[in-house]
């Protein structure tokens, strides 16, 4: 049975892990391209795709590399797909997680670690949910950033400036 547990990482934990080694992390920003352009975590790649491609990706008709234009990222994903840790984040008010698994079909995890019924506005077809579910199905380690807004606020600290970009 696939593992559908939602693993969270704080901005502090991510910072410490990135200081040790950036090559084992692939950070995917699941917000719109406009929001990504305004601010994002340094080394993060925007994973904003048209809804038709998202549906095809969710259905297994295309793989993750088909959705990525950046040649370097494609090569990085292909070379160490299952060895990398994928860090996903979106807006703090959008749902995060896969909403699937035994006993969790009707739950989504909201940013900050709160589990809520899917009927409270959680959408299992959002980019971050589809991406989380597909990566977990492929056997990848996936973590969701607990508080992206806090991470961006902390970027004013000198030791975090190298990792977080505004």
UniProtKB/TrEMBL annotation:
<protein>
    <submittedName>
        <fullName>Rhodanese domain-containing protein</fullName>
    </submittedName>
</protein>
<dbReference type="InterPro" id="IPR036873">
    <property type="entry name" value="Rhodanese-like_dom_sf"/>
</dbReference>
<dbReference type="Pfam" id="PF00581">
    <property type="entry name" value="Rhodanese"/>
</dbReference>
<feature type="domain" description="Rhodanese">
    <location>
        <begin position="21"/>
        <end position="126"/>
    </location>
</feature>
<dbReference type="InterPro" id="IPR001763">
    <property type="entry name" value="Rhodanese-like_dom"/>
</dbReference>
């Amino acid at each position: 049975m696939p593992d559908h547990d939602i693993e969270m990482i704080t901005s502090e934990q991510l910072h410490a892990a990135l200081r040790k080694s950036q090559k084992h992390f692939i950070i995917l920003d699941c917000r719109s391209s406009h929001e990504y352009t305004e601010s994002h975590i340094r080394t993060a790649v925007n994973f904003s795709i048209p809804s038709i491609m998202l549906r095809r990706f969710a259905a297994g008709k295309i793989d993750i590399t088909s959705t990525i234009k950046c040649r370097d990222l494609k090569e990085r994903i292909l070379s160490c797909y299952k060895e990398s840790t994928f860090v996903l984040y979106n807006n703090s008010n959008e749902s995060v997680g896969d909403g699937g698994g035994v006993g969790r079909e009707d739950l989504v995890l909201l940013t900050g670690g709160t589990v809520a019924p899917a009927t409270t506005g959680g959408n299992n077809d959002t980019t971050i949910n589809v991406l989380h579910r597909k990566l977990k199905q492929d056997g990848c380690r996936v973590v969701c950033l607990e508080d992206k807004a806090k991470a961006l606020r902390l970027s004013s600290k000198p030791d975090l400036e190298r990792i977080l970009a505004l």
